[in-house]
């Protein structure tokens, strides 16, 4: 066994006699980074959405949750939605969606889906709180929620009574659960992989 191990080490340590030439990379141009302001530093983005005009980043920074950048030139356009637990404020955001003239944020700690109106002008954007839908009456943990259709909401989490089999998804009408799913409601096992992280 020792002879076999010795022969193996010798064979592996032999070189082919070729020299290693370190690769040379041509420097095309200098790349510079610039921090506009320490106030705009975002350490951890929770979510992001894009529409025809703006990029919306969901991250807790400087006491606000939504940071907006111009889609065409990347310029910072402002921060919105205060951190807190009052009306229109967000404590622990987990998802962001933008659809035409509405922006929605799910606050996991308050178990609320908050809706804001978007008013766009050629050089400005105004985000105003409209209303919220509470999921606190649900049994279990709601991690995220989305507007599914008019007045229908889809939620993701560990849902249902603890003494029964918990469900992953539930469909709500804003007041009560209409239907529960163990997995995402799709036909065929091959499609389920797409919805592991809806």
Structure characterization notes:
There is one protein chain. The chain has 198 residues and is mainly β. The protein has 2 domains: 41-134, Thrombin, subunit H; 137-198, no CATH class. Helix content is 8%, strand content 44%. It contains 2 helices and 12 strands; from the N terminus they run H-E-E-E-E-E-E-E-E-E-E-E-E-H. The strands form 3 sheets. Strands 1-2-3-4 form a 4-stranded antiparallel sheet, with no helix packed on it. Strands 5-6-7-8 form a 4-stranded antiparallel sheet, with no helix packed on it. A 4-stranded antiparallel sheet has the order 9-10-11-12, with no helix packed on it. The termini are far apart. The relative contact order is 0.09. Residues 194-198 have low confidence and may be disordered.
Helix/strand layout:
Blueprint: H1 2-13, E1 47-50, E2 54-61, E3 64-70, E4 76-82, E5 93-99, E6 102-107, E7 112-120, E8 125-134, E9 140-149, E10 152-159, E11 167-172, E12 177-181, H2 189-192
Antiparallel strand pairs: 1-2, 2-3, 3-4, 5-6, 6-7, 7-8, 9-10, 10-11, 11-12
């Amino acid at each position: 066994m020792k002879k076999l191990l010795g022969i193996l080490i010798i064979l592996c340590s032999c070189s082919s006699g070729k020299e290693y030439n370190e690769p040379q990379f041509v420097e095309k141009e200098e790349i510079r980074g610039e921090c506009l302001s320490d106030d705009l530093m975002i350490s951890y983005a929770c979510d992001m959405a894009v529409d025809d005009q703006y990029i919306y980043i969901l991250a807790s920074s400087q006491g606000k949750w939504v940071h907006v950048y111009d889609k065409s030139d990347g310029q910072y356009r402002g921060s919105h939605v205060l951190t807190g637990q009052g009306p229109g404020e967000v404590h622990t955001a987990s998802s962001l969606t933008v659809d035409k003239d509405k922006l929605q944020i799910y606050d996991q700690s308050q178990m609320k889906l908050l809706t804001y109106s978007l008013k766009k002008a050629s050089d400005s954007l105004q985000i105003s709180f409209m209303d919220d839908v509470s999921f606190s009456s649900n049994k279990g943990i709601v991690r995220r929620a989305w507007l599914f259709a008019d007045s229908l909401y889809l939620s993701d989490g560990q849902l249902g009574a603890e003494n029964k089999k918990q469900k992953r998804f539930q469909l709500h009408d804003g007041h009560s659960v209409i239907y529960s799913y163990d997995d995402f409601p799709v036909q065929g096992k091959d499609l389920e992989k797409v919805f592991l992280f809806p």
